[in-house]
Amino acid sequence: MSHVLKAESIGVRFGGVRALDGVGLRLAAGEVCGLIGPNGAGKTTLFDVVSGILRPDTGRVLLDGADITRRSPVWRARHGMRRTFQRRQLFGQLTVGDNLLVAQEWRRGGADPGRAAALLRACGLDALSDAYAGTLPVGQARMVELARAAADRPRVLLLDEPASGMTAEERALLAAAVRHLAEDDGCAVLLVEHNVAFVMELCSRVMVLDLGQVLAEGTPAAIRADERVREAYLGTQTPA
Ligand SMILES: Nc1ncnc2c1ncn2[C@@H]1O[C@H](COP(=O)(O)OP(=O)(O)OP(=O)(O)O)[C@@H](O)[C@H]1O
């Protein structure tokens, strides 16, 4: 299997804290991989390294086999990597539709209203295209963030807590939309999410971080059955 994104032996220290210690990651086109782990496990730090916000002390990040460890977040975005954040970052004074068009305009191809409309449909947002993004409740705003991140067909999508604040109905829509992006567009999706049931349902592969290291990696069924994961993490959660 060829991997669009790889991270190898990533190490990050914050003073005396080893936030990441020899972490590796592989992501193939069309796969949805979930990243879970207790608070402070290093999930956000790994996202920051992969998206280029943080330069690791050790290790490297590869996109299509090329070393991009020293490339800026903007360079990575221009080359097909998109990320959403835990804190919402929509243009509140633009409509939902315009939020998507702006995301397409900044790249060389210009706006693609057809793609934007199809994405809004896939995300259950078509009736909200003319609504101001700043007026939306949290669950819908998160869906718009997903649609905007996917607006110019990224090859790698990093989603930070995409389901937080969503109702069960919105989570089902989100899962369908993410699946659509992976299966139909071939996008490689990595998501950090505290809702373990959601991750187990959506992802084909799950990685568990604990204390800056990969504790386990495998199918949702294998992760659920893993004793170390139960002890470190799932024991405190309601497994799916
Ligand atoms: N800027 C920073 N300065 C100092 N320590 C940091 C910094 N960012 C993260 N850390 C520490 O690094 C470790 C990993 O943090 P990180 O935020 O990556 O974990 P996380 O798995 O995303 O946690 P959460 O689930 O709470 O978001 C923690 O011990 C955290 O306190």
UniProtKB/TrEMBL annotation:
Q: Is Isomerase found in the keyword set?
A: no
Q: Which Pfam families did the record assign?
A: ABC_tran, BCA_ABC_TP_C
What is the originating organism of this protein?
Streptomyces kunmingensis
Q: Which InterPro entries match?
A: AAA+_ATPase, ABC_AA/LPS_Transport, ABC_transporter-like_ATP-bd, BCA_ABC_TP_C, P-loop_NTPase
Instruction: Name the SMART domains for this protein.
Output: AAA
Q: Does the keyword Nucleotide-binding apply?
A: yes
Q: Write down what this protein is called.
A: ABC transporter ATP-binding protein
Checking PANTHER family in the record gives: ABC TRANSPORTER ATP-BINDING PROTEIN, CONSERVED COMPONENT OF ABC TRANSPORTER FOR NATURAL AMINO ACIDS-RELATED
Alphabetically ordered keywords of this record: ATP-binding, Nucleotide-binding, Transport
- The UniProt record lists the ABC transporter domain at 5-236
> Which PROSITE patterns does the UniProt entry name for this protein?
ABC_TRANSPORTER_2
Tell me the GO molecular function terms.
Answer: ATP binding
